[in-house]
């Protein structure tokens, strides 16, 4: 059987692992074994936080909408219920953007519901 030398492959793999941990502190950026573990943990956290980011943004939109409709005589839940009954199909993200950036337009949307 032919002898296989792993020098080039091993160095390439190690270089790749350490490149992924650039900016990490202490042994995580210099030692291959610790760096591999750091990459694994970072990937797990990244996966989990991609999911939780969606949840956090929806909470933010809800909060902004609620803050905007309170002075106009609605609560968040009554506002969303009124939207559904009036067949206004704006999503929470766009409602939040309206409330934050264009309050007079948002007030007009709310006035549509009071008629």
UniProtKB/TrEMBL annotation:
Superkingdom, natural source: Bacteria
Coiled coil: none
Xref: InterPro entries: Ribosomal_bL20, Ribosomal_protein_bL20_C
Keywords: Ribonucleoprotein, Ribosomal protein, RNA-binding, rRNA-binding
One GO BP: translation
Listed Pfam families: Ribosomal_L20
GO MF terms held by the record: rRNA binding; structural constituent of ribosome
Leader sequence segment: none
Gene Ontology cellular-component annotations: ribonucleoprotein complex; ribosome
Record function comment: Binds directly to 23S ribosomal RNA and is necessary for the in vitro assembly process of the 50S ribosomal subunit. It is not involved in the protein synthesizing functions of that subunit.
Family as reported in the entry's similarity comment: Belongs to the bacterial ribosomal protein bL20 family.
Protein name: Large ribosomal subunit protein bL20
Organism of origin: Candidatus Kaiserbacteria bacterium RIFCSPHIGHO2_02_FULL_55_20
């Amino acid at each position: 059987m032919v002898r296989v030398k792993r020098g080039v492959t091993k160095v390439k793999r190690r270089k790749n692992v350490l490149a992924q941990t650039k900016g990490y502190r202490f042994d995580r950026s210099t030692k291959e074994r610790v760096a591999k573990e750091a990459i694994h943990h970072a990937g797990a956290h990244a996966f989990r936080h991609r999911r939780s980011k969606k949840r956090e943004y929806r909470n933010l939109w809800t909060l902004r909408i609620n803050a905007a409709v309170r002075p106009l005589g609605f609560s968040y839940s009554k506002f969303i219920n009124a939207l559904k009954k009036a067949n206004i199909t704006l999503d929470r993200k766009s409602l939040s953007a309206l409330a934050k950036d264009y309050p007079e337009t948002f007030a007009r949307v709310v006035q549509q519901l009071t008629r």
